[in-house]
Write a structure and sequence with these properties.
Blueprint: H1 11-22, E1 44-50, H2 54-61, E2 74-79, E3 82-87, E4 96-102, H3 103-117, H4 127-130, H5 133-137, H6 153-158, H7 164-167, E5 170-171, H8 204-211, E6 216-223, H9 225-233, E7 255-256, E8 258-262, E9 265-276, E10 281-289, E11 297-302, E12 320-327
Parallel strand pairs: 5-7
Antiparallel strand pairs: 1-4, 2-3, 3-4, 6-10, 6-12, 8-9, 8-11, 9-10, 11-12
Helix pairs in contact: 2-3
Length: 334
């Protein structure tokens, strides 16, 4: 009660904290920074249990009657004598929960889950497998922070010079001198249906103007098998070398943007390229003009222009075209 937990990329809690301070609200902001930016100890643990046996596993380790938790709703569990908050946050359209609680309870809760999970075939996934979940499910985790305007100069000055916004690299074949070309709207991200004008909020006027305009649609691009193999084959021999694709995720910038064309016309941007065994190939999330039909073929330009940028994650390479098939539906369900 009277508490809100903001989870996600630092750009969101940064904005919330700034407004809490500048707005003079009677609130206390406590930051629990992600491990990579945290010199101390986390305050909260967070585990995700996903898969066809996930709910049965959690039911077996929960002490008491198992509550019904609707999608994206919260509930309370008890595991190893500890109170656990649970979010129905399945990323796979199978059963699954996100569990969190005080960090001091984390090890006990995890050990109980791992022990109970032995008979269910539970396997711990690391950072590499975790990074494949959002593209499969259709979630774009890192929109470009839309803060690069004169009106938000004071906010940018408040942000730390070495923070997320300052270090969020841009990469890919799409380039523009206008930072606004990298901004994404709720419709681009698949959130258009959630835009409601029955209350006031920052940005309402802008969204009301955008609502009746053409939008881009969030969708999936299945990469051509032949073109994917062509990229890997270029790493051998003396011929032109295309941008290396690290498995299972091939994004080499915090904010990846690749051009998607129909003929010579730019129809949108691709972002977050991965390989998964569920899809059995390479694919990416994209935001394309609504005129691009489901099942149609488009061309994605892979790699950066002029031999690549000087960032340490970018080797010298040449660009290449990749044929992709558009899918309005998740590829692991197609």
């Amino acid at each position: 009660e009277n508490k809100v937990s903001v989870v996600g990329r630092p750009s969101v809690p940064n904005w919330v904290e700034y407004n809490a301070i500048k707005g003079g609200y009677d609130v206390k902001v406590t930051r629990d920074e992600r491990t990579v930016a945290n010199a101390g100890r986390r305050l909260i643990y967070r585990y995700q249990i996903q898969g066809p046996n996930a709910l049965e596993l959690i039911k077996s380790v929960h002490e008491g009657e198992f509550p019904e938790i609707k999608f994206f709703n919260m509930g309370d569990l008890k595991i190893a004598g500890r109170k656990v908050r649970a979010l129905n946050h399945s990323m796979s359209r199978r059963g699954g929960l996100e569990l969190h609680g005080p960090a001091e309870d984390g090890e006990v809760v995890r050990d109980a889950i791992l022990k109970a999970g032995e008979k269910f075939g539970l396997v711990q996934g690391g950072a590499r497998s975790y990074s494949t979940v959002s593209p499969e499910s259709g979630w774009i985790p890192s929109p470009m922070p839309a803060i690069w305007t004169p009106a938000l100069k004071e906010y940018r000055e408040w942000l730390p010079a070495n923070g997320f916004e300052a270090n969020a690299s841009i990469g890919g074949s799409f380039t523009s001198s206008n930072i606004a070309d990298y901004y994404q709207t709720p419709w681009d991200l698949g959130y258009g249906r959630h835009v409601k004008f029955d209350h006031d909020f920052i940005g309402r006027d802008a969204l009301e103007k955008l609502e009746s305009q053409p939008h881009r649609r969030k969708l999936w691009l299945r990469w051509s098998k032949e073109d994917s193999l062509k990229i890997f084959a270029s790493q051998f021999g003396d011929g032109p070398r295309f941008k290396y694709m690290e498995m299972p995720n091939a994004y080499y910038a915090i904010l990846p943007f690749d051009k998607v064309l129909v003929g010579d016309k730019l129809v949108g941007l691709s972002t977050y390229t991965v390989y998964t065994v569920n899809v059995k190939g390479w694919f990416s999330l994209a935001m394309l003009d609504e005129s691009v039909a489901d099942g149609s073929e488009v061309t994605l330009v892979w790699g950066e222009e002029n031999g690549g940028s000087p960032r340490p994650t970018v080797e010298r390479h040449v660009q290449t075209d990749v044929r992709c098939t558009v899918s309005y539906n998740r590829l692991n369900e197609a």
